[in-house]
């Protein structure tokens, strides 16, 4: 296990430990989650509504999760990593992956999402959806699943698996058939893993459009690289949290936005893949404000 991989697992273990024990204003330990009884302490402070921060796999959800943990003050104690539906309004904040129409590996089921959407319609909850250019997500997801299936690595992003852009392009060029199988939703790509398939690229784009149409608030990941404080202000307003804006610093994401454009220039077969996308998929990408 290399240093980056070890650091990732240490951070994960530390966060889950901290989630087990949180301290209230009087210094007493308050358990948000009991591993023995598998029950949640479900608080509601004031007029809070349950918040669901959802991003499809490879959308920048992890960045948003880390930013929330650092930046929303006391309500951060009620953040959970993962999607769980709760009836009625609470102060809980769930951050995770989910789908609306297509069942998918690694993401909460459409049945769970339907219940969340009903809660949003009833004003018991808010759905905040984060998304990025689908082609950037496609490259990130292929690298993630390739490393996970072949090496057991859970990389935090392309930069952990590839040294630079040239390295990414070399891997893509060498294993392009593998990339196409993943993008097309070929079940053979996950032949060695038990469980449902992952979204094809067409399904991924369709899911993105459905969430954009349904969310209380939509967040474009790329906008956080331009004006992270302005984007986070939208989150704070939706959550109705009071923050000290004079002291608050929101870090921009480290991920390279619109990486797919550079990859198109360097890998002709990837450019051909983009040029050959179905008309419906191209139309949906343009509908959510992106170009090809």
Overview of the structural elements:
- It is a single chain.
- The chain has helices at residues 3-20, 61-71, 110-121, 134-151, 158-161, 165-174, 176-183, 201-214, 223-226, 228-239, 259-266, 268-275, 279-287, and strands at residues 22-23, 29-30, 50-54, 79-81, 93-96, 125-131, 217-220.
- A hairpin with a 5-residue loop joins strand 1 (22-23) and strand 2 (29-30).
- A five-stranded parallel beta sheet has the order 4-5-3-6-7, with helices on both faces.
- The protein contains 13 helices and seven strands.
- Helix 6 (165-174) crosses helix 11 (259-266), helix 8 (201-214) packs parallel to helix 13 and helix 11 (259-266) packs across helix 12.
- It is globular and about 55 Å long.
- The longest helix is centred in the first third of the chain and has 18 residues, at 3-20.
- It has a domain at 135-196 and 256-287.
